[in-house]
Structures are given as C-alpha cells and as structure tokens.
Amino acid sequence: MIRNSVPFRALVASVLLVLSFATALAQTSPFTYQDMLLLDRISDLSVTADGQFALFSVRATDMEKNKGVRSIWLKNLSVPSEPEVRLPISDGGVADARFGPDGKTIYFLSAREGGIMQLWKTDHDGRVAEQVTVSLAVFPECKGDEIACTVKRNAERAADKSSGTVYTKVFVRHWDTWADGTRNHLFHVPFDGTAQPVALTDGYDGDVPSKPFGGAEDFSISPDSKTVYFAGREAGTTEPWSTNFDVYSVPFTGGAATNLTAANKAWDAAPRLSPDGKTLAYKAMKRPGFEADRFELQLRDVATGKVAPLAASWDRSVDDFAWSHDGKSIYAVAGDIGKTRLFRIDVKSGKVTPLSKDGHMDAFVETPKGFVFLKSALNSPAVLFAAKPKAMMIDEGATNLTGVNASLRNKEFGAYEQFNFPGWNNETVHGYVVKPAGYVEGKKYPVAFLIHGGPQGSFGDGWSYRWNPQTYAGAGYAVVMIDFHGSTGYGQAFCDAISQHWGDRPLEDLQKGWTHALKTYPFLDGDRAAALGASYGGFMVNWIAGNWKSPWKCLVSHDGVFDQRAMGYTTEEQWFTEWENGGSVYQDPTKYDQFNPALHVNNWSVPMLVIHSDLDHRIPVEQGIGVFTALQAKNIDSQFLRFPDENHWVLKPQNSRLWHKTVFEWLDGHIGAGTKR
Questions:
Q1: Residue 524 needs a FRET pair 20 to 30 A away by CA distance; which of 12, 94, 147, 543 works?
Q2: CA 479 to CA 483: how far, in whole Å?
Q3: How far apart are CA 378 and CA 393, in angstroms?
Q4: pLDDT (average), residues 226-236
Q5: How far is the C-alpha of 47 from the C-alpha of 14, rounded, in Å?
Q6: How far apart are CA 204 and CA 245, in angstroms?
Q7: How far apart are the first and last CA of the chain?
Q8: Strand pairing of 106-110 and 29-30?
Q9: Active-site positions?
Q10: pLDDT by residue (tens digit) across 517-564?
Q11: Helix (H/G/I), strand (E/B), else coil: 74
Q12: Residue 173 main-chain phi, psi, to 5 deg
C-alpha cells in the first residue's frame, strides 16, 4: 500500500488539467499576416457623461468585397459581464459615433444615401437612423451663399464635356487627390431642423477640418454653445510652403471669425475650452515651416487674451489631450521612450504625472467611475479597458471590456524587449528586438531589420496594420527595430537631429544598433538578414544599398525617396523637403545631393524588392520606378510591385494581402525562414 498518496479524484483532476493545458498549447499557432488582415479593429471611443455606456467602432474586413466594414457597438459599463451589442443601424454603413449631451442620442457619420458622408442620429436601440445634415465641400468664393452657389457650380461642371483643369496655384494635388477648387467648411445646423445651415467659415480660403487627415479635433464648441473654435490654415498662394495653422473663434450664429493666434506663424491646433469656459487650451509649435516641432500646450485666458505655456519644461510633444472634469488638470497623450503614454498635467503648477505604464494609449475618457480607454501594444491590437478605481497606473490591472478578437488567445506572439546603446554623438538610442514565435533556445533565426518612416516617427510598443513586427515573428523571423536620431518620444533635440542629416546620423545609429543587437542576442543570425522600410524607411533602404550593403542579403524599399532633387520639385508639401534639406531645391540643389541615393547607384548590388503606388503624391511613383530602373539596368535581382489604386499607404484588404505575400516570398527566397503560409 502506498502511503501519503494523492487521492484518486484529485489525481484524475490533475491529469485532466494537464491534458487540457497541453491541448490548449497544441491548439496555438503563430500569428500571421493573414490573421492580422482579418482582425476586428476597435476605435472611436465615446462614453456618456455618467460613465454608464460606451460606444466604439469595430472595423471588420470583407475580403470578398475588398473593403473594411464598420459597425457601432454599445457597451453597458455598469454591467461589465454583459457582452457589447452591435447596433442594427450599422448595416447602412457607419463611422465616428458619438453620444449627444443627453447621453441617449447617438450621432454618427454615414454615406448610406447618395454616397456622401452625412450626419445621422439614433438611440440606444440603434434600429432607426434619422438624417441630420446635408454635406458637401464648397467653393470659398461663393461667399454669402456657399451652399446654393456650390450646387450650381457643380451642376455646371457636370454638364461640361471637357476634362481639362486650369490651375493658377498649388496645391494641384495633395496626398492622394487632385485639387478641384472646393474647401471643407463648417456650418451650424440646429438639431430640430427649424433653421437653415449657418456658415461659420463663410468665404474662408482654407479647409476646416484640414486635409488630408483633419477631423473633429480641428474644432470645438464652447460649453455655453455660444462660440465655435476651429483651427485652419489660410491657403492663399503659399499653402504648400506653410505650416501656419491658426486658432479662430466665431459666434455660433455666424459672422466674422477672429484669429486668436495670428502672432504665431507656426502650427496651432486642437482648440478645447475648459469646463468653466474661462480658459482655451490648444497645441502650438514654435518654428514655422517645420511639421515635426514639439507640440506644446498653451492656455489662453478667454477674458483677457493672455497666453501662457503649460508645462513648458516638459520635453515631450502632445499628440492628444482633454480637460479633466474639474478643470484642474489636462490629460495628455505623448510619445515617451518607445511608448505612448497618458499623463496628467496640473494646470496651476504644470506638474506632469504619468498615468499609464507601457504600450500605446489609443483613446481615453475620464468618467465618474474612472478611466475607460483603448490601448494597444507590440503584441496586441487596441483593446477596450476600464481602469481599476484609484489605480496609480490606469493600465495596471485594468479590466478588458470586450470579447473582440478573442481568437487571439489561441495565437502565439513573439516575445519582445526594449534595449539601448550609445549611438551618434555617444547619445543613448533605443530599440526593440522581437523573438520569432515558437522560439527555441540556442537556435539562430533570420532577421527582419525594420526601419520606420516619418522620419520623425517611431517603431515602439504599439500595434500596426501595415508594418507589424509580429507578422514577421509569426513567419519565423526575428525582428530588430531602432529608434534612430529623428525619432519622436525622446525629446525635441533628439527629433531635430535628423534634419539635414538624413544619411549620416541615423545611419550611424542603425549601424551601431545592429552591432549591439548581434552581440546581445545570440539568436540573431547576422548572415541571414534583410533591411526593410517605407517612406523615410524606404529612403534609408535606398541609401544603405549604396552606403551600408554588407550585412544584407536582400532589401525591401516601399515608397522611398530615390532622387532628392526630383522629390524637391514633385512632392506636394514643399515645407517638408525644404526644412529637411535646409532650403529650396532651386536655390541650392547641392544640398539635395548630400544624401541622394540616386548618386550612389554605381555601388548597388544587393537584391531589392521595390513597392510603390500611383496615388502617392507625397513621394510620387516615379521615385519607385527610378529605383527599379536602376536595379534592372545593373542586372541586380529585383522586383517591382505597383498598386494603381493606393496612396502612400496600402489600405485595400486584397492589396494588403498581396503586399505581405510578395514581401514574405521575397524574404523566404533570400534569407529563408522556411515557414509555410
């Protein structure tokens, strides 16, 4: 007889538990780009003032129809265990849902009738949609009667059989569209439908919201509903050279707008009034012509017009912000050492206190019950959370509020960690390394060396649906990413260091970072490595092809600058090339030759995949064609993937799938992780 034995029932339970755990492990599989493309994407968080209900948008992917499909979901925060509910009005197409002031009405955008995005409303049941507005872009010269005049002019254009357009000023094209003379303007429309729309930017020669990425953050309404504040850039004849956005105020009933920031010739943005209506907060840059200057918070006394900076010594650029309910603090989101965190800034003292620890804060709302927020990370798309009461860091121990993307529990992600090393000028530079999924200790793995764009950007602890390190990890590759000088979140001086130094300081960081990673992480196979990048990252790939080609068995250049002189004449936002090169191309073309990949083609020999799109007006498609032509002329192993219907990004699901398939087949053919897809 065996003494002190485990009871039979407990033994059976333990065995079953082990078997269950083993079965769960056996069912996991590496996260792949196919998984990523089919994920549901959460965004557009809105919460009622009492903190009882939350709205969010879920963007699903319809591969058959080759488009994203959005729906609105309602979550009862008072009963977290209850699943969120999809609102039936989603069937007609929805976007940007928000609760009205009463917490009962839901307003949303939809193009369900006529193909033009309009404002609609519904209730919590979400069964009936009622149209609130009629929307169209207007001709600013139609001052005094913008709507009727614009409708007439559009009809005249439609009747004209010719297709030519005469331009007298730039922009002739911006981002991915050609200019047609119309502008985005603001109107006030009473919800009860008792009056005609009131023009709030009548005759203004500028776009509100701004193009191409502006939205609701470009305007706000005062708590007493008497004043509208908006940010805009007056176009004139200098729009492509100007970053001079200003903050304006205009009566809710219409009339002349007042420029509140005329003294600042740099970028002013995101006006938001305090709860008591006494203080206007907004973001401001200091240097005209520079789009990546630090966004610093400014506080304007509404009564006196006096302006003072908030937390002037805090060396971080504000991405987003909101007033606290009591008006004593401002909550700000900012990049911080490879993460994007939430901070509280005391209005009286300027003291900055971090409220989140890691990952990427995508959206947040303060409620009487605590924060509700969206947060992503290197190993997770955005998830809806509720913070625990009185938590020092709101993301520590937070409660997941949705079952969206629950299937990810059966996916294996690559473990990652942040590292640092002495880079250019012996200054500290940070990076991330990601192990391949299914990592085995002692084994070496081929490496995808990812280079971020911007160049004032970051590859940090956040999620991406375009350049996602976990898709490489799932395909059997290790990943190395370096936040070289010029990256955001490390202070403005670090960000500034790249301007007029595209090819030397960042290159030194990349080289030293690669050397450090190889010495620190023995699982990286330095003999099987590829460098990949887009935009500035694509430029850097083109640059290292002639200046640092020795480590790489193959390269991938997506939408990269090839000929700096041609870029200076053909890109739409001229302020960018002139700031980054220290002047205009016609005044001093030699500055554009200092880091010009086209002048180093004679040194090229590494196989390269080139990707570019016809609607990319930021870095025109001829730049990619030039790269491919140079490779073919030199008889270098190369491919060119062209998208006729994409812009600087690849957004259509089928195109994204082809992009990833082509990239991974290219990598497999040259450095061979060997994972089947």
A1: 543
A2: 13
A3: 19
A4: 97
A5: 44
A6: 13
A7: 55
A8: unpaired
A9: 535, 616, 648
A10: 999 999 999 999 999 999 999 999 999 999 999 999 999 999 999 999
A11: strand
A12: -150, 150
